[in-house]
Amino acid sequence: MAGVSTPLLAAEVSEAGGLGSIGVGATDAAGARMMIEEVRARTARAFNVNLFVHGPAFPDDAREAAWLAALSPLFAEFDATPPAHLRTIYQSFADDPDMLAMLLEVAPPVVSFHFGLPPADMLSALRGRGIYLMATATSLAEARAIEAAGLHAVVAQGFEAGGHRGVFDPSAPDDSLGTMVLTRLLARQASLPVIAAGGIMDGAGIAAALDLGAAAAQLGTAFVACPESAADEGYRRALTGPGACHTAMTSLISGRPARALANRFTALADRLAHLPPPDYPIAYDAGKALHAAAKATGEFGFGAQWAGQGAPLCRSMPAADLVRTLKEEWQRARS
After folding, report:
1. What are the pLDDT digits (tens) for 70-107?
2. Hey, which end of the chain has fewer CB within 10 Å, N or C?
3. In a domain, 104, yes or no
4. Domains identified in the chain, total number
């Protein structure tokens, strides 16, 4: 998850025998280069660089003004003023030639895509550097698009997963397939290796995913409570407390559907049901500003506390220990 993953976390996972990952969707080419260099300074093993490939955001002054007006009382609660204007704070990889040039230069072992696929010429250039390519699918149709684009593997993201839904088109109907159904569907009807993701928190979950035909399992929420992650104290408390039993799929925080721990932000769903948020990532500019204002007073309930439905199974331990524990649990489940 971008914003929570760190080079240290990725390196520790890779050193312990997993495939560590850094999310660079929230930074530019220079920032991504620094993160990649830090991972390589810590490990010689393979790691993944994850990129956002969202469609263009369409600014709408009236819509954004209405959104800020709706959030204004919350800013006032923390003696803060909402931003005068909202920005498109993240650039899609599809529109970022600097990021592509950097990746072609440094050639990380693995690159994965979320929210869709970049243009064919970008994929061809990355393949030409020997980079292993993966992308998230939430449906069979998306998996087939990934196949047709010539990628090497598909990540089957179930509806249980924490963080942003990887849907290619957020305006289209979402079948909300769970990890079990989606993994089995892709294992039987798609030709690429399938990596199961969503709600997998322990070795037994990994074993179940492999039994369904997955080649591997991807765990995100399971590692957020590790000391190497960038999660703040409020996020960690929420993730390891009784509130972890409750998650919500919401577009309020960023403008795209994402699963988070239920908190004061997600609780605004009914109050703001009549008001569509600005496009992703414009809405996220407002969400981040509100979180910063609240956090400055000690209130963490407006953070983007991304977490999957398996959050109550989260464990606070060093990442390397968690990888070893997962392996031991998987081996016991297979015996």
Report:
1. 999 999 999 999 999 999 999 999 999 999 999 999 99
2. C
3. yes
4. 1
